[in-house]
Structures are given as structure tokens and as C-alpha cells.
Amino acid sequence: MAEIAPNFSSSVKLKYVKLGYQYLVNHILTFLLVPIMLGILLEILRLGPKRSSSSGILSTSTSSRFFAPRFSSFSLLPSTLILKNNPKSVDFQMRILERSGLGEETCVPPAMHYIPPTPTMAAARDEAEVMIFSAVDSLMEKTGIRPKDIDILIVNSSMFSPTPSLSAMVVNKYKLRSNIKSFNLSGMGCSAGLISIDLARDLLQVHPNSYALVISTEIITSPSYYKGSERAMLLPNCLFRMGAAAILLSNKWRDSARAKYKLVHVVRTNKGADDKSYRCIYEQEDKEGKVGINLSKDLMVVAGEALKSNITIIGPLVLPASEQLLFLFTLIGRKLFNSKWKPYIPDFKQAFEHFCIHAGGRAIIDELQKNLPAFRRARGGVQDDAPPLRQHIVVFALV
């Protein structure tokens, strides 16, 4: 009798084989991906975070499709709106700026940051308010003086002369007294700061027990900001920057103890009668009718002559007797014996401990160093620390 075959369909073992087969087929993709993912993970750990991130970016970009139908980038071409028709003028200004000696602390007013610049009357007033009010606020904080204590007010700005004046603007801002003696100087160039000091001294001599507030500034955003192409008229745009200075003068005895400086001599030399001197810094229109300041080639020669005249006057007032005698003996020797003798240049370092040079440009400092040995050590970081601002630079160094 033949054996009866086992019923595999009802076998328990076959049941588990069937379940295993179904599980394997249903999860075969998972079984295949797990080793691959494990291998990728181990490779990432081996490469490190930087290289793994690069690999991830590369993997994503190769497994996906990205399209860039258009693109755009930042361009500096709009800057050609300034003098765009005359690139030579732009190159000229760049060369002047590179050799000007301007420090990193200098800046131009906000109106000059626009393309093209917007030297409007409103922008000029805003610049004047920011600079003048900041200087006066700082001075009042340092000295403890109140607005009602000020007896004399002098403000100078060569190029910007609005109506009402800048001095009236200060009176209105600080609500100064109705009997204050107020003056506004304009168009007086680089010497306006010291002219203001001279005026304040004269007024203090006839008004005892008084305070004089002197404010010196130059407004770059003036309507005379030059937008043409004449090189002699482009120089002021390159050389001068924002700034203002305020100084308090007093003839009260109680201020002598706390005063930082004492005003001893003020010597002015006026060369306006000479035609070259009169036109060396001249506001005019160019061929296209654009207004600007023309700096003549004779400027340094004129400045040198004025400096010699000024030193001739101030020398006897400040030099010691030994230097004055040497100068006198040399002068007599040239007159009586040999006119080819070199004139004796007094050593002004015996009269002054410090020199404050008008840093309107590197050429001015170089010219002073060339002609006056006493100024050779004085050169340094004046232009780096204080922005060239025409007339107020000397007052700036004192504040």
C-alpha cells in the first residue's frame, strides 16, 4: 500500500515560508536601499562636514533639473551719469583724490551721494544745520555756557550765504538774546576763520566782561558746487570735505584759569590790491554757464608772497632777541657788502611750540616745508585727522 503524500498546503512550516516570501517581495526595495544608504552615510562621515555638503549639493543638482531663463546683476554704470559726456574729467578727479592726502575720516555731505548730486538750497541748509549745531552743542557741553550768556556771535562760510543768514539760523535755534551782536561773513575764502577771530578780538576790546562765539564752516552742498568739466574748477570738488568748528572767546578774568589758550597776536596781510591775488580764487561761470570756483595756477605763488609779508610783520612780535639780531645783521650785510648773501630765515621753533598749518591741500603743506624749515617737522597727520575745509581748518585744530 503506497504511502500517503503529506498535505503541504496545511503544513505549518509552509505557512511561514509563504509569509516570508510575501514579506521579502513586498519589502525588497527597502532591503536594497538600506545597504546603499548605510554606505552613503559612512562615506559622508569619512569626508567630513565641508566636503559632504559639497557632495550633497552636487548630488541634488545632478538628480534634479533646474533652469535659469534670465538673470541680472548689480552694475556701476549709473555712476557715469556724473560727467558721463567727459570721462577725462572723471579720470582727472580720481588722480587728484588719490594724491590729495585726504584721510579716511573725511566725508562728503548726503546730497553728494546721489547720482547725480543734488546741491539744492534745502540740502545746503540741512548740511549747515547738522555741522553748525553739532559743533555748538559740543562746545556748550564742554564749557557749561548757556545760550543766554553769549554776547557776540560770528559765523563765517565763504560759498553758502543764504537769507536769512547762517548767524540768524544760530540765533533762532538757540534763542539767543535780542541784544546780541551778530555777524555773518561770506566770500572771504580760506582766511575767513582767522578773520572771524580778529573781529571777535576787536569787539571784545570794546565790550568788557563778554563772551564771543565764533563758528567757522564751509558748506559743500552750496549752489556753486561745480558740475562742469573745467579742471581748474573741478579741484575744489576733490579737495574739500564736510566740517565745522566752534570756539568760545572771553575777556572775563575768571576764565583765565580754565582757558586752554590765550590770544596774544593776530596779524592780517591783505593782498587784494594785487590783480593776481584778487583772482587766484575766483567764482565764475565756465563756457557752458556752470558756476564754480576757479583755482588759479598762481595760487601757490600768491600764497607764498602773502606768507612772507605776514611773517615779516609777526616775526618781531614773537621771535627772541637773538634771532632778531641775526636777521638784522644778515640784512645789513646784504645791503652793505654782498647782495648775493642768502637771507637769514629765523628759527620760529624758538617762538612756537606747535604749528597749525592750513591744510587746504597737500601742495600748501609742501610749499611751506620747502620755504620754511621750521614747518618740516610740523607735517604729519593734519589732513588725515581733520578734513580740509578751507577757512575753518585752523580753528578746527584749536577746538
Structure report:
It catalyses: a very-long-chain acyl-CoA + malonyl-CoA + H(+) = a very-long-chain 3-oxoacyl-CoA + CO2 + CoA. One of its GO terms (cellular component) is membrane. InterPro entries: 3-ktacl-CoA_syn, FAE1_typ3_polyketide_synth, Thiolase-like. With 399 residues, the chain is an alpha/beta fold. The protein has a single domain, classed as Peroxisomal Thiolase, Chain A, domain 1, CATH 3.40.47.10. Helix content is 45%, strand content 9%. The chain contains 14 helices and six strands. It has helices at residues 12-26, 28-47, 49-63, 87-99, 121-143, 166-174, 192-206, 231-239, 275-279, 299-318, 321-336, 362-371, 382-385, 393-398, and strands spanning 152-156, 181-185, 211-217, 244-250, 281-285, 291-295. A four-stranded mixed β-sheet has the order 2-1-3-4, sandwiched between helices. Helix 5 (121-143) packs across helix 6 (166-174). The longest helix is centred in the first third of the chain and has 23 residues, at 121-143. The radius of gyration is 39 Å and the shape is elongated. The N and C termini lie far apart (131 Å). Mean pLDDT is 77; it is low at 50-64, 70-81 and 378-399.
